């Protein structure tokens, strides 16, 4: 009987066909093919991703997309025409998705480190410090990720402040804040379900917990207002002021804004007992407090942040970034 032939033992006199290597010439992507829109209120963009007054489409965009141009007028900012823009609704939805993910991931960290406050002699410094590091990472990464798409506001504080500075239109402000609140609530309830479903698991969240027996309402309001003003002052100067475009560039801006947010959380968290840090994001706290069935001093997160936005608006118009910019426009 002949031995079965192994196909691997077969020898051929012909050389195997050479592997064909494809050579392609790369070319830059045409900017017109990228799905993006000009938006002057883009964090990290320093108002450079907007249509200038020398553009022939400037006057038309003043009416249709007022927050896409530099130095818009209040008439355009308050117009409701943008509600018909489907792209604006999609961007608002992305803001909600971003905050949903933020609440979930940061909530996992705060839940896992909550017991450290009594486990070491450092007290709340250790868990709040960890939360501040996470805050820095999340804020920085989300600005890089969503900045070119939605502007990476992810907080009613930033959205309302940019509206008062005429960098965000009224429809965008309403949609962004609505979806941010929805995203915060959805993320918090998913977090609660992932941790066992008990509301008590989300009570001690850095930035969203105040003990009324140790911290009076007036002190919580002062802490939140000044902390929010601190964040706004730095976020506008580092991420929205065109005069800083040559100082450090767009690549460094998100890191600096992230540091500002982390400093605010850490400073507030170690300031006094019963206070686990500054919120500076009412939508995030709305979600966590709704899921934990505890709304103690939640009004402070909204009124304090809105007060900071109004104060900052006066500062912004006192020294506007453009020479021809006036508050009455």
Automatic annotation (TrEMBL):
It is a multi-pass membrane protein. It is found in: Membrane. GO terms for cellular component: membrane. Pfam families: MIP. Keywords: Membrane, Transmembrane, Transmembrane helix, Transport. One of its GO terms (molecular function) is channel activity. The chain crosses the membrane at residues 88-109, 121-144, 174-195, 215-236, 248-271, 299-319. The keyword Transmembrane helix applies. This is Aquaporin-like protein. It comes from Hyaloscypha variabilis (strain UAMH 11265 / GT02V1 / F) (Meliniomyces variabilis).
